[in-house]
Amino acid sequence: MEIRVGKQSLQFAEAPYIISSASIVGKKEGEGPLGSCFDVVGEDDKFGQNTWEEAESTLQKEAFTMAVGKAGLKPEDIRYLFSGDLLGQNIATSFGLMDCQVPLFGLYGACSTCGEALSLGAMCVAAGYAEYVVAMTSSHFASAEKQFRFPLEYANQRPLSATWTVTGSGAYVLGKQRSKARITGITTGKIVDYGVKDSMNMGAAMAPAAADTICQHFEDFARGANEYDRIITGDLGTVGQEILQDLCRQKGHDIAGLHEDCGIEIYDAEKQGTGAGGSGCGCSAVTMAGHYLKKVKSGKWKRILFVPTGALLSTVSFNEGKTVPGIAHAVVIEHA
């Protein structure tokens, strides 16, 4: 059961639990500051497959299998699966999860898809429609570059504002079975367009949407930033982080001391040459599953606000001169 709160939020009367999670990443992510946090680090970014797209599908299949196994469940115990990716028509998801034979809701929220999947999965469990669901997503550096920018063989230069698409997949089993972390509320984001047209500056495109959702969340729940141990965005990077904090400050919320970004944390930008940081659906998914969720489950943090962010562009819209709108979905995760 859920209770509508404010304009865009839900508070769960019986909060669903995050029973287990799994994180699988590529070699570059494993070499970053959080490398030891992830369940599996691949030595070959093709993960034994012939194409980058098949590699990403393999990431999803393995993350699903691992998360379900860690929960002590079998695929047939999962009522619904909520997943998506960055590729056209969600092909990483459909080909990766086809053999799992679990009813699937295919999602697209760009890099905010992890927040969307967790939100819908939590709603489903809280409403009593399922005992167990899986929320997950993925991205792959090479498949995303091939679709949105340039093939790797082109060896194009990247501006410092550009982010590096994370190779990885994160999966979460949600249900009514008790664990040390639960989702107590959500705030669903709106599309926010600040007129940014630079596809190499995703942080600037997404930061306004993140600020809009975070500030609306505070209003809906009648809370301040200091009621959270951390406010964690998905893929803003260093450029987007500065813009986000400025926009929140303008609306009366100073989050600077509490804000962290998965895209900043997953890489050592200077040593690894990743520009403004990490991005991609897998960025927030694996960083939350492998790093942040452990801090909540241990009780070190009592309540965090997880806000994956997405840039809603395609190759078609970009080539037709359209702007890059953004969206962000907020999920409240608390120690149980």
* CATH overall fold name of the largest domain: Peroxisomal Thiolase, Chain A, domain 1
Low-confidence parts:
none
How is the largest sheet built, in terms of strand order? 1-2-10-17-14-11-12
Q: Termini, distance in Å?
A: 18 Å
Q: Give the number of DSSP strands.
A: 17
> How many H/I helices?
11
Mean pLDDT: 94
Order of helices and strands: EEEHEHEHEHEHEEEHEHEHHEHEEHEE
User: What's the Cα radius of gyration?
Assistant: 18 Å
The shape is globular
Q: Helix/strand-derived class?
A: alpha/beta
The overall number of domains is 2
The CATH superfamily of the largest domain is: Stage V sporulation protein AD
State the major sheet: 7 strands, mixed
What proportion strand?
A: 15-25%
Describe this structure in words.
With 336 residues, the protein is α/β, with parallel strands linked by helices. It folds into two domains: 14-175, Stage V sporulation protein AD (Peroxisomal Thiolase, Chain A, domain 1, 3-Layer(aba) Sandwich), CATH 3.40.47; 181-335, Stage V sporulation protein AD (Peroxisomal Thiolase, Chain A, domain 1, 3-Layer(aba) Sandwich). The chain has helices spanning 27-30, 52-70, 91-97, 113-126, 141-148, 202-221, 237-250, 262-265, 269-272, 281-297, 315-319; strands at 2-5, 9-12, 17-25, 40-41, 80-84, 104-107, 132-139, 164-165, 168-175, 181-187, 230-233, 259-261, 278-279, 303-307, 309-311, 326-328, 330-335. The strands form four sheets. A seven-stranded mixed sheet has the order 1-2-10-17-14-11-12, sandwiched between helices. Strands 4-3-9-7-5-6 form a six-stranded mixed sheet, with helices on both faces. A two-stranded parallel sheet has the order 8-13. The chain is globular. The model has no long low-confidence stretch (mean pLDDT 94).
